[in-house]
Amino acid sequence: MPRRLHHSPSIMTRSNFSAPRPVIHTVLLGSILFAGLAAAGCSPIVATRGNLTDPQLVAELQPGQSRRDDVAAVLGTPTSVGTFDPNVWYYIGQKTEKTAFFEPEVTERRVVVAHFDNNGVLREIKTLDKSNGQDIDLVERSTPTAGREMGFLEQMMGNVGRFSAKDTKGKGPGS
Prior knowledge:
Blueprint: H1 21-42, E1 45-50, H2 55-60, H3 68-75, E2 80-81, E3 88-98, E4 105-116, E5 122-129, H4 152-157, H5 165-168
Antiparallel strand pairs: 1-3, 2-3, 3-4, 4-5
């Protein structure tokens, strides 16, 4: 007579198939930690470069009344002074955001241009922002130079035999 297999109800209870509590806590903590690190990795890195002037400070300066010293006291040292006209001061600043591996994006740009007369009195002050900027396409060409092109081996072996011991005698360090 064939023998019947009996399955004991105690074998199929839920307690036999549940993971121990410390394992559940470890997995849950690890998942929360991983999600937090992943979210932090996606938050943008904000970088401010230059002198990002405060518009309220710029509004304090009055053309015809403010002098160079006043402008320097309020806005600080200019980022640049005009190359061809030292009576023009530039305060240049921008803020960029970089997320993960993407290229940085300019979120804010401000250029304050201060024009002075020959007596150092502020004649005009204007603020330019990101909308006034222009994208410039860089040219990939290179300017050729005079002379001949040398290959790698020519550069490596070019000086072999050009110098002798008598040419270098007394010309070294300490002589």
